[in-house]
Each structure stands twice: as structure tokens, then as C-alpha cells.
Amino acid sequence: MPSLINSILEKFEGKPAKVRVIKTMVSYGLSVKEGSIYCNDIEIPFASLARVASVDQRVVKELTKEISSDQFLSKIFSKLRATANMVTVATELGFGVIEITAKNPKEEGIVASVASIIASAKLSIKQVIAEDPEIYEEPKLYIITDGQIPGELIPKIKQISSVKSITIL
Q1: What does the mean pLDDT of the chain come to?
Q2: I need a labelling partner for 92 at 20 to 30 A (CA). Which of 65, 76, 145, 164 fits?
Q3: Any alpha helices (H) in 11-127, and if so which ranges?
Q4: 25: which residues sit within 8 A by CB, 6+ positions away?
């Protein structure tokens, strides 16, 4: 079964600039409403998105019109929301951060396996961010915990068959 992002990207096959914009929009959680681009309730200028996606702003404007006029795309992009990513500030807040690279990021159960090990150490998970392998070349899984990660958990997490590498940030 094709993923949602693949279904969206297939509509723009052969249009690499539009694909870059789509991937950028999804990775930032940018939505399209009434012909404009938003980060939650903040309108984003076409030029700003174009700069980040390394395309001409006319590509962004045209893509926004296409999304607005397509029932399927409009339904998806009108509901996207940006979420705070605490990875870079977690240590300042006293939280722990685990970065995991999977052997096969599409494999089921990676989050559940790691979460079980974290729970066994009586740590709570504050946030989980799993980068979409359809958008990121080498997607990472970030798990932020309510305290520092005890060293004895690292070998247990490394034993999970689908874990390629682990970094404590």
C-alpha cells in the first residue's frame, strides 16, 4: 500500500522543484488555506518558502494554486499543523534525548521496542519525533525523556534488531 506522502508526490512526478516544495511543506507542517501558506495561524510569504526550498517563488505560488484546486491535496494540506520540536532544547530543560537510526525505517515496532526499554527505567517520554523516510534521506527517530538516559539502557537499545545506530544527545 503506497504511503500518503508517496500518493502526493506521484501527482508531481517529473516536477522536482514542486517535489522539493512539497517535502519542505510537510517537514515544517505548513498548510495551504484559501490560496495562502500557513504555519498554523501565521501566513508564510511565498518568497520565504521558495528560499528554503531553493526554488523560484513562482513555483510556490503555482503549487499553492494546484493544492487549493485539488480536492485530495486541499483536504490534506489544509489540515497540516506545525509542532514544537524539543530536540535542540531538551538538554537545557533537563530532558534526555536519544537519536536512533534504523536499519529499515519502515519496519514496525521500533518506537514500541525503545519505549518499552525506557519505561523499564521508570522514565517518561515527553516527545517522539520520527522523520518520514519518504521525505528524509536518512530519517532519524528522536525520543525525548523526562530525565537523562541511564547508560545501562544504551546496550539494551542497541540489541533491538532494527536499530542501526544510537546517539545520546
Answers
A1: 92
A2: 164
A3: 16-28, 46-53, 57-69, 71-77, 110-120
A4: 31, 32, 37, 49, 77, 80
